[in-house]
Amino acid sequence: MEDSFFSRYRGYSWKHLRKDLLAGTIVGIISLPLAMSFAIASGVKPEYGIYTTIMAGVLISLLGGSRFQIGGPTGAFIPILLGIVLTYGYENLLLAGLLAGVILCLMGIFKLGSFIKYIPQPVIIGFTAGIAVIIFTGQIADFLGLTGMEKHEQFMANIAEIIDHLSSVNLYSVTTAVICLGVMLLTTKLFPRVPGSLVGLVVSTAIAMLFFSGHVPTIGTVFGAIPSTLPSLHMPEITFERIQMLLVPAFVIAILGGIESLLSAVVADGMTHTKHNSNRELLGQGIANIVTPLIGGIPATGAIARTATNIRSGGMSPISGITHGLFVLLTLLLLAPYTAHIPLASMTPILMVVAWNMSERKHFIRVLKTKTGDSLVLLVTFFLTIFTSLTTAVGIGLFLSVLLFAKRMSGMLVMSKVLPDHSSNHEKVLPHVVNDTHDCPQISIYTVEGPIFFGTAQLFEQNIMKAVCCKPKVFILRLRQVPFMDVTGEASFRLFLHSLQRQGGLLLVSGMIPSLKESLIKNGLFDEIGREHFFDHTGRAIDYALEQIELNKCIGCKHFVFHECAKFSHQSI
Q: In this predicted structure, what is the pLDDT of residue 418?
């Protein structure tokens, strides 16, 4: 049973509330440095990441389809948002996020949540690993403290920029970053329940203030002080031209946000043995992304790592997610002035660890080892994500997946001519009975196994038309093993039917599953064949066929094939 809005609070008690408050506080502590890091890496001010965590975090938990989901800015969005900021500017990023929210709402309203789940794993792993590479390499400049850097949308341009400015390495920045990274890793290993990113950030910031003050760039020196209040509501300027310009970026944000949120919800389901509502999750994500830009926030989605942390910390309901957002708000109100002292070099190890964790390296290697078409899809999606854009990568990855699927399915279509086997007690129709001296020129029976769709339609047409050339009086098709027929398959089937009818043949169909029958009714083939020519069993179709044939013209054939007989003759009498 899918999680409903009220069922998640059924039996809720003070004990559950205490667990939610504790889990929400822990996740809030983790989310704070991530929010600023994701915003900076996306090319916007750090406070915009905090605003996103507050507003989207509360709305996604309150309105989404998973009781454990933690929403906010995520690493997966970084390359997309940075590209939008560099190309269109921050104001247009807000409008793109709002449009993405509208698209997500429409996807939820029209119940498209289940369709996103059908995106192949090699495509998801490929673009996720590609994004991880972009995030990791994007932190090298601040890790080394390089100055005079210009951000580019293209991966190779950014690498070239880093190489050109290697001479400006700041050893104080490197030292600060290494301290933060070391403290993070050590804390995670020795105290798994303690948020290593926050400890690393605090320790490295304190050391930098004491020993390297004025020698490393900080949030304050680069972005200015972070306001200690939420901004007032501001509606982005909406014009037809701007909507047209930002529709593709908005669609990419919506699709990626939908994939990330539903993947996160599935992970939560596996950890808690519950079931989320995918369409309501998309609707909640959509509303959050419509509202968040109004206070300057960037696009948000479900965060897998923070959702898992919420569950491990004892989160019981959306109250934990709401608490996480309110905790970040309280921190903003009380501690905003102190964030100006945080070195940018202290932020880079946090994102590098995020990139490493989201790289899907184990799954990546496992798919590569299969050395199949999935490996090709994975590599193509991965490299296109890095060297072109996520839109191109996912589009071509999906296209390759469809081609490989069609190729695999085409090998599943099997057509065989069959006749009754009189040596069997059950008189089944089997292919081994048919040979050069044992056949029926008037009744052809074919068993079709597998889907008849664009990938197999040509093979079906070739085989079936060869059989039509033999000019049988009656053609019996056994379709019990045909799961579906698409428009291309329908066209091939209709061509076969018309060719058979032109030469005076009769088509009978046996053993068709209900879904295929419904499809034939919709496309008109059911009526073209004739309702009386459909049978549940092949035996009844054979009896009907024998009634239609002028038996005095082929008695020997009729007796030999469909009854036990010692002699076979093609001679008409």
A: 85
